[in-house]
Amino acid sequence: MQRNLLKSAAFMALALSSVPAGAAQAGTAVAASPQLTVLQGNDDISRFYTASKNAPIWFRAGQADAPPLLVSILKRSPIDGFARGPQLAMEIEAAMAKAQAGDPSSVQAAERLMSSAWISYSQAISALTPRMLYSEKWVTPVVPSSFQVLRLALKAPSLAQHLKSVSDINPIYSSLRDLAITEAKLPGGGQSARYAANLERARSIPATGKFVLVDAATARLWMYQDGRPIDSMKVIVGDKEKLGLPTPMIASVIWYATFNPYWHVPDHLVRKTLAPHVINDGETYLKKNGYEVVSDWNATEILPASSVDWKAAADGTVHVKIRQLPGPTNSMGKLKFNFANPEGIYLHDTPTKSKFALSNRALSNGCIRLEDAQRLGRWLLGREPVAPGAGMEQHVQLPQGVPVYVTYLTAQPNIGEPRLVRDIYGWDAQSTITAAAAVQAAGAGS
């Protein structure tokens, strides 16, 4: 079928060019096609073709390899989370076979059907990543409009290359998808379920630009420049097993670095750790470790420790705001990189470096400790990260905001050799993309 699609595309372009602009809306010979009648209900597609004077997208001269590629993409698309793809592929093949006779209405029906299918697919793969917290508009995916999808396709010098670029999403995603499909052909489906489960999470990673990628599954941070990893370091991430505090998936933007930061103690740590220490060791525990009670996080008022009912704080009936002053024991170390998110997660230095030697680095209360905060700061700032003074909590703006993506990849396809790592948070089993989708995609490619 694909060979027939390639042979017929050129003369179909000639047939399509003979259909007057607006013929579909006028209800002329095109209306004889039941399939096209359905497509006429899509006002966006009709308006687009009217605006472009019925310029063909799929039957343009020199683009004969695009229709069969679209069919292939749709056949494997269940693994992209687009369940309707195989059915649409069958409909396109049937429409193309009918259009081979050169009837203008059948040619235009095939043209519009392919445009409708490409719009649906493109919008489906632009969906938000499940479980990810999007905290900045800049890094929140936008589902493209029908006009945007078709305009880019029409203007693409190589339509086939455009289809491949859009469907590949990013190098990590396309590698994972290929691995899932390959594994699905093995007896029992191999490890296809594991690779497929990571596709949803990999979808949020950009294909280009400068950004920080934190992978909680391997407890590692990557610095990307022009869409390529150029440096990395170990990190310590949230402990789900003992503390019940996994590091969430987040997309946000780092705008500034904070030197000599305060540590604002999370409420659960006040309850579990600090309040019991004060009860057992007295209020001197706070002073000894650089803690102070504040009226709010802007520290408009420092409160005496004696004003707090520490037993109530320990049982959670009273909520106390406590911050730790900068210093050698401060949990933030000397440098912090904040980014907007509802969970109060950030990247930060740490005075305790020994834990980076451990193989299991899921040890934190959710925040991300950096093996080398200075090195990350140098890359973000574009210069040596030096505090502007000796004062506390000094914010230094970056030359430009840098997106940060905190994700969870238990499959690593393009970082060294392909490998699978332990699912420490148990999130693979919660994926909506399954081995069945990989098997279906593998069958489409055989």
Notable features of this structure?
single chain; 446 residues; four-stranded antiparallel β-sheet; 38% helix
Neighbour order of strands in the largest sheet: 2-3-4-13-11-10-5-14
Instruction: Characterize the overall form.
Output: elongated
| Total individual domains | 4
Mean pLDDT: 88
Estimate percent helicity. 25-40%
Poorly predicted segments? 5-41
The biggest sheet, with number of strands, parallel, antiparallel or mixed sense and barrel status, is:
8 strands, mixed, barrel
Number of strands: 16
Radius of gyration: 28 Å
The fraction of residues in strands falls at 15-25%
User: What is the straight-line distance between the termini?
Assistant: 14 Å
